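Researcher: For the annotation table, I need structure tokens for NADH dehydrogenase. Please keep the output clean. Sequence:
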Amino acid sequence: MKPQSEILIVGGGVAGLSLAASLGKTLGKRRKARITLIDKSFSHVWKPMLHCFAAGTVANENDRISFITQASEHHFEFWPGEVVSIDRENRQVVLSPFHATDGSLVLESRTIQYDTIILAIGSCANDFGTPGVKEHCLCIDNLVEANVFNEKFRMELMRAFAHGSELDIAIVGGGATGTQLAAELHKALDIVDPYSLHAFGKTPPKLRVTLLQSGPRILPAFPESVSLAAQQELERIGVTVRTSARVAAADAEGFILKDGTHIPAKLRVWAAGVKAPEVTQTYGNLSLNPTGQILTHSNLCSIDDDRIFAVGDCSFIKDDPLPATAQVARQQALHLARHLPAFIERGVKVPGCVFKNKGAIVALGKYNGWAALPGGTVWGGGFFHGFSARMAHLFIYRRHQIELFGFYRGLISLYSDWIETFVRPSVRLD
């Protein structure tokens, strides 16, 4: 029997993969619909962990979740590729050709029909047109970029070892990604210390990390007390924090600030701003906001087409904008998972999604962490160096894994990660 409806989910991030698995259980298993997930890669990683992959303090081989495995276990299909255009009139999408890592063509451009499409393609850093950023800076918006940074970081460390020089790294953006990356890089070097003494006969080179924030304080989404405490903690471990530092340009040697100051940096990271991937501009003339996010109603349906939904960082609720966070994406995915079956089967309109803010957590490596809860309550820091907040951050990550793997497989994954701590170094060395 042919499925009654074709549902496409574009993007396998926090929202996309969770939604595909949920709809697979409710509609795919009963053959009420064929659910197809499309993503440029073959595996999912939790985006709030990308700074750990970039620093090498997490072995991403263990933390990647295979789309093919998830598809086979949750009654949906998966195809690699990127949706480069949407034909709204004929309800079909065009996928770009798919190439192997060596550049050889694997799949030609393809066309796929849909009845309902959910766009969950996430976001990327916004360089605001700053000269030199695209040519001279690295981003860590996805696993590929995180791995590229990690490779360069390890090679520059090796060069600094050999020459007895310092390694300068500058990070633009004092939000959660930038601050956590700055701390994680110092954590990586602390872990490397005992290995380097035996392998190279010398201590690690001095790491000089500069964090540049255009606003008056880092972590602007958190209470001011957290911003101040986080800056003090970063400075304590050796990070130079510069607030009200607007970047005018980037070059091969570092960053140039508006006041003419040059910040030298061998590695330059851009972690400021949020915008949707530029490909949204080819999505059937859908209405977008200035940063390319798709304008939606409160029920996450595009304001232009009731068969197109957008969730997570690539969407922008016109009358009630929400921050681009994993928490928002997860709640939106759960909302659609709950209400899309009635829309698909009986044409019942999806109700508005009400976001419930459960707070935010920032974990500065092994050094400290804070959680800001609704109502202004803050906990973390103090004598235990933010242990409770850092454990909460880890708990959220493990909960995400359990939701995708299932309870028992999620626990096995946790156990296997723990076992590996006894046989593998806790930082990527090669």
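Researcher: And a one-line annotation?
Model: The first helix runs from residue 14 to 28.
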